[in-house]
Amino acid sequence: MPQVSVARLQPTAKLPQYAHHGPFGDLAADLYSVAAVTIAPHQTSLVPTGLVMAFPADYGALVEDRSGLAMRGITTLAGVIDPGYRGELKVVLINITDAPITLPAGDRIAQLRLVRRIEAEFVEVEALDDTRQTTARGAGGFGSTGH
């Protein structure tokens, strides 16, 4: 199990927490707001968590939506945290509704999903070798399955 060092920038900041543990536990840990914020309709807001983190070199994290907030019209943007980042973790939230939404300090605002960092080598080729990389999908993209 990887260990992530976490320091509070403010005493009221809450460490990320998994709501469910064990074999069928949560995929991501809840992140909490350290300040109250009102997000105007169709606007984005940078919401502080009051935390700094140090991930192991081979791990980073993704900031994901909370389903309850998404149902209310609040979703996340720009959620990649690289292993070398040591600044305050802030969450970019957008209000996609026509009404302002207020989130009190201490509210769960997003989820933090740890991911293993894999660094690829990108090799330029003239064309893809269809004999090695033939797939049923091919070049089909958005809506390619007809559903």
Features:
single chain; about 150 residues; mainly beta; about 5% helix
Question: What does the model show?
Answer:
This protein is mostly beta strands and 147 residues long. The chain contains 2 helices and 10 strands. It has a single domain, classed as Deoxyuridine triphosphatase (dUTPase) (Deoxyuridine 5'-Triphosphate Nucleotidohydrolase, Chain A, Distorted Sandwich). The strands form 3 sheets. It has a 4-stranded antiparallel sheet with strand order 1-4-8-6. The mean pLDDT is 92.
Secondary structure: elements and pairs:
Layout: E1 5-8, E2 29-32, E3 37-39, E4 44-54, E5 59-64, H1 67-72, E6 74-77, E7 80-81, E8 88-95, E9 101-103, E10 108-116, H2 130-133
Antiparallel strand pairs: 1-4, 2-10, 3-9, 4-8, 5-7, 5-10, 6-8
Quick recap:
The chain is mainly beta.
What structural class should be given to the helix and strand makeup? mainly beta
Name the CATH superfamily classification: Deoxyuridine triphosphatase (dUTPase)
Oligomer: single chain
Number of distinct beta strands = 10
Which stretches are low in confidence, meaning pLDDT under 50 for 5 or more residues running? none
CATH architecture tag:
Distorted Sandwich
Name the CATH class. Mainly Beta
